[in-house]
Amino acid sequence: MNTMRQKMVAGNWKQNGDQALVKTMQDGLSKLAFNGVEVVVCPPFPYLGAFEAKGFKLGAQNLSLHDSGAHTGEVSGSMLKEVGCQYVIVGHSERRADNSEDNDVVAQKVQQALAAGLTPVLCFGESEQVRDSGQLFDFIQSQLEPVIALIGVARLAETVLAYEPIWAIGTGRTATPEQAQEVHQFVRSYIAEKDASVAANLTILYGGSVKADNAELLFAQPDIDGGLIGGASLKLDDFVAICQAAE
After folding, report:
1. What is the per-residue pLDDT for 189?
2. Which terminus of the chain is more solvent-facing, meaning fewer CB atoms within 10 Å of its CB: N or C?
3. Considering 38, 101, 164, 184, which one is annotated as catalytic?
């Protein structure tokens, strides 16, 4: 069952990095070949054009709701596509919190990404309060429903999902492989009720303090198809080790 799904490791640099890191990653990753794993690097906007993506793919961390126009500071999907992006992260918890992106905005951004020919990496996940309240599955469903309502379940096949429990991002706390698998399994079942084929083939990543030493156990879970990596994606050796764990 697992073999038909694309394994993926995506590095989200967030607001980090410089030209030196671009060069280190470019040189390091272009020398390696990962068997059956799509490796994606998502640096800040100014560095996208500096990468010549060999042996890996480029992704952006956000995109505009608009195609073009008087939107100072915004970057459209078509611009991202033109500088070589194939992926774009949408709905990261930091953008939901810092930039007030609600579920409807996130759904519209998924639609914009698809319209530009980009693969959105759609993030979802709960806070500690939500997990403790017993509302976990309802909450996650409420994050995914507006997307499916807008683009339809068939087009979900053109996306990648990323489960990121907010309480495990940058905290050093990681969801146990069992906790992560439970949510991944729920999401896949929820989508399977609408379209079994889309659900079976959908790549669902785990993100939240993934490191070289815990990646293998996480990736061994039946419904976890790889990782969206934060801090560890800024160090070449760590990132490579995580990519190797996905092999």
Report:
1. 98
2. N
3. 164
pTM beyond 0.85, yes or no: yes
Reported CATH class of domain 2-246: alpha beta
What does the chain look like in DSSP terms, one character per residue? Answer: -GGGSPEEEEEE--S---HHHHHHHHHHHHT---TTEEEEEE--HHHHTT---SSSEEEES---SSSSSS-TT---HHHHHHTTEEEEEES-HHHHHHS---HHHHHHHHHHHHHTT-EEEEEE---HHHHHHT-HHHHHHHHHHHHHHHH-GGGGGG-EEEE--GGGSSSS----HHHHHHHHHHHHHHHHTT-HHHHHH--EEE-SS--TTTHHHHHTSTT--EEEESGGGGSHHHHHHHHHHH-
Assess whether 184 carries a catalytic annotation: no
Catalytic residue flag (residue 164): yes
182-204 confidence digits (pLDDT tens): 999 999 999 999 999 999 999 99
pLDDT one-digit tens code per residue, 128-143: 999 999 999 999 999 9
